[in-house]
Amino acid sequence: MNSQVYQTVIIGGGFTGLFTALHLAHEHYPRSVILIDKDERFCFKPLLYEYFDGEMDSFQVVPRFSELLKGSGVIFVQDTVQSIDLHQKEVKLASGNSYNYSNLVLALGSVTGYHQVEGARENAFPFWTQADAIALDHHLRDCLQKAIQTEDVEQRRKLLTVVIVGGGASGVEMAATLGDLLPHWYSALGGNSSEIRVVLLNHGQKILDGDINDPLRPIAEKELQKRTIPIEILTGAEATAIHPNTIEYKSNNQVNTLSTYTTIWTAGTSTHPLIQDLPIPKEHRDHHNRPLVTPTMQLLDFPEVFAGGDCAAVQDSSLPPTAQVAYQQGANIAQNLKAIALGEELKPVKVSIRGTLLKLGLNDAAANLFNVFEVAGESGHLIRQGTYLTLLPTPIHDFKATTEWVDEEIFHHHLDPHNVGKKVVQAVEVVGAGVVGVLVARKLLKMLGDEEKSK
């Protein structure tokens, strides 16, 4: 179907795509906006663990696009993109419909990367979407139920062993969550929780190596051992094959096997196939095959096309593939789209890395604020929850408050490296948005007070 000439099409409803759309609506963008995604729900990926373990509800973590965009004027189309014709400025969908655009926003994110490991795609569980979380939940509960019913010791050991491949942030968060959650589930069935085994398999010699969460490694290593079931960490272990009942890995030039019915894959991502298929020359892509974009987030060969988040790389810049980067890019892409519509000058995108948040079990997390202050345990958990809740793009939050207000009030006004303790408490009180902030502030005040007494 042909649409009007002056319209913006956004492909992908992740952080970059959704926040671009919401910002355009908030800024009264003078052109029509169409957001296309294959799913009916937005997935707040940093909180998918909270959805999985029951700490948060679906309406918080995976709200429907129709609810998020209600009253915004943004047209949501649930469909799968079949092809993108950058020369004809046309997007074709699996349904047979097509949309022409004056401006296009590529916000497809990345996909699970299996790195040609034998059997990984077929036999390992990814953890990327709501469907992934539901599938893993059902599988694990089924394993525990079978384990409680069998008298075969070897069979029970396989059912109660979980192997997580990948020692990056996702693997660490998954291992920590299961180290608390599985013993709780199994005990509720009448099982012996000490029989649960959670193994984290990491190719490198260090977990979180090269990750934005690298400064939190000492805390993470300590907290992983404090879970209800301590996590077994195997480093220098490269997964080579995954079968339904075993996983093979190479360590010290030897091939070893682990018997398990549950392998979870968190070992990296790959560039989205639609992005790989774009007519962009190799010299205008990075080493991950992602297209390079200008500081204003435009493709080098097609300036009417913007790209952000995991599916693009900014020229002469190195940004981590995190939610905070993606939503800031979305806000800036929206500003530049409006500038084009009004004939104004485009501005380079400025992304502020505000720190890192790492889930380390039930009611446990670590927070690193601007590499000047670290908080772990329940206090870190409350900071993490409070921060992400403030950023949830739900109808009950004013959008301006969740982006510009948070940016200015918290990260510019409340954090001063010269007075860290006091300012972090102030920041937490604001980030927490109410009760969460008060709880965290009390925790931090007590911590700071105890530190002063010990001096």
Please provide a written account of the structure.
The protein is an alpha/beta fold and 455 residues long. The chain folds into three domains: 7-111 and 270-342, 3-Layer(bba) Sandwich (FAD/NAD(P)-binding domain); 120-267, FAD/NAD(P)-binding domain (3-Layer(bba) Sandwich); 356-454, no CATH class. The protein has 15 helices and 23 strands. The chain has helices at residues 15-26, 48-52, 58-61, 65-68, 120-123, 130-149, 153-159, 169-188, 217-224, 273-276, 323-342, 378-391, 399-412, 420-431, 435-454, and strands at 7-11, 32-37, 75-78, 81-85, 90-93, 98-100, 103-106, 110-112, 125-126, 161-165, 197-201, 232-234, 238-242, 246-251, 254-259, 262-265, 269-271, 292-293, 305-307, 313-314, 356-359, 365-369, 373-377. The strands form seven sheets. A five-stranded parallel beta sheet has the order 3-2-1-7-19, covered by helices on one side. Strands 9-16-10-11-12 form a five-stranded parallel beta sheet. The protein has a three-stranded antiparallel beta sheet with strand order 4-5-6, with no helix packed on it. β21 and β22 (365-369) form a beta hairpin. α6 packs antiparallel against α7 (153-159), α13 (399-412) runs antiparallel to α14 and α14 runs antiparallel to α15 (435-454). It is elongated and about 70 Å long. Mean pLDDT is 86; it is low at 395-455.
